[in-house]
Amino acid sequence: MLANFDSTWPYYAAAIAGYLLGSIPFGLLLTRSAGLGDIRKIGSGSIGATNVLRTGRKSLAAATVLLDGGKGALAVLIASHWGPDAAILAGCGAVVGHLFPIWLRFKGGKGVATSLGVLLMLDWRIGVLACATWLVVALITRYSSVASLSAMTLSPVFAWFIASHQLAAVALFIALLVWIRHHQNIGRLLRGEESKIRLRRA
Predict the structure, then answer these.
(1) What is the pTM assigned to this prediction?
(2) What's the chain's Rg over C-alpha atoms?
(3) Is residue 95 situated within a structural domain?
(4) Each residue of 68-107: b (16+ CB within 10 Å) or e?
(5) How far apart are CA 130 and CA 180, in angstroms?
(6) Is residue 196 in some structural domain?
(7) Residue in 10, 122, 106 with CA at minimum distance from that of residue 73
């Protein structure tokens, strides 16, 4: 039993560390430090960059994207020292941490930036294609949610054809989590009530 734990503890540690890193609510911390109050009380109530953008502070939204993506990438990078499986567990842990942070009673963001950061570190080709998909769809539709769901939906396809079946399964797992977290957005889209991306203060 002890020998088995000695060989598997890096994987448990990677998953837990990834979760704790992913659960850092940068959007909330940045808006509070800027004197804008609790980001969860405006817009969609999310702590992600799209909701931060609704404050009219594009710089804060950009910083939120970078930090949320960076924590996913960092989790993978650190855990990669213990091998690719540990890196995958840390990346998945980071996404789960962002979606369900223990510090915020498990009510976090939508996980897109963190997911993209994880995918970029697991295989930069998948991450770049997913980011490009988000950008193209966002420019065409002006809906962040549609762009996010499109990017996450296609990421397992990208992984299947250019990487490995294992990474495709990981991307599919992440995509399912993001889709679940977007259930309210999907409802608003179906009702025609979803807000579009606005780069200027209303």
Answers:
(1) 0.90
(2) 17
(3) yes
(4) bbbbbbbbbebbbebeeebbbbbbbbbbbbbbbbeeeeee
(5) 18
(6) no
(7) 122
Does residue 106 sit in helix, strand or coil? coil
Q: Look at the chain and report how many structural domains it folds into.
A: 1
Quick one: which of 177, 127, 164 has its CA closest to 19?
A: 177
- Domain range for 37: 2-191
What is the distance between the alpha carbons of residues 151 and 155, in angstroms, rounded to a whole number?
Answer: 6
- Taking the C-alpha atoms of residue 2 and residue 135, their distance in angstroms, rounded to an integer, is 49
What distance, in Å, lies between the first and last C-alpha atoms of the chain? 61
pLDDT per residue over 79-119, tens digit each?
999 999 999 999 999 999 999 999 898 989 999 999 999 99
Q: Is residue 164 part of a domain?
A: yes
Would you say residue 202 lies in a domain? no
